[in-house]
Every structure is written in structure tokens, then in C-alpha cells.
Design brief:
about 90 residues; mainly beta; 10 Kd Chaperonin, Protein Cpn10, Chain O; six-stranded antiparallel sheet; two-stranded antiparallel sheet; 8 strands; about 40% strand
Length: about 90
């Protein structure tokens, strides 16, 4: 499937943080806390993009940002603006 972002949106692939299961069977995701962030990789940029990100950059996204979709069973994608990126992770 070929997904192309429109307008000023950037397409990110989000990586699931391990869930923490509490007594009683309640599962709490890492993103449920107030200061949580999401690790993601830039997958596609809009055609007229002139910002500081490149495809393949590993970034940290603000909590609860963008619009999330699931492709297939496992791949989670987020459409978000560059303003919602907290930082680029250099390796």
C-alpha cells in the first residue's frame, strides 16, 4: 500500500512501547501517562516540504498528537505536523 501525506502533514511510523500489566488484568500503555512521548520514524514527507526533517529520521513525537491509523495488523502510522516533533534522535 502506498500512502502519501497531503498538505503540511508528515507520515510517521510509530513504535509501540511495551505495555505494563497491573494486578487485575488492567493493561496500561506507556502513552497513557501525562509526560509520555512516542518514538517514531519519518516515512513520507509532503512533496513541497522545506523543513529540517528527512525520511528515515528517528524522532520523538508529543503525546496525543496527530491522527493515528493502523495498516495491516501491526504497522501504526501517524499523520502529524512538524510542530508536533519534540526532537530528532541522533545515533
Amino acid at each position: 500500500m502506498n500512502i502519501r501525506p497531503l498538505g503540511k502533514k508528515i507520515l510517521f511510523q510509530v513504535f509501540e512501547e511495551p505495555a505494563e500489566e497491573l494486578r487485575g488484568g488492567i493493561v496500561v500503555r506507556n502513552t497513557a501517562s501525562r509526560g509520555a512521548y512516542r518514538k517514531a520514524v519519518v516515512r513520507r514527507l509532503p512533496s513541497a516540504y522545506r523543513g529540517g526533517l528527512s525520511e528515515g529520521d528517528e524522532v520523538m513525537l508529543k503525546p496525543w498528537c496527530g491522527t493515528e491509523i493502523t495498516v495491516g495488523r501491526d504497522e501504526r502510522l501517524v499523520f502529524a505536523l512538524e510542530d508536533e516533533v519534540m526532537c530528532v534522535v541522533d545515533q
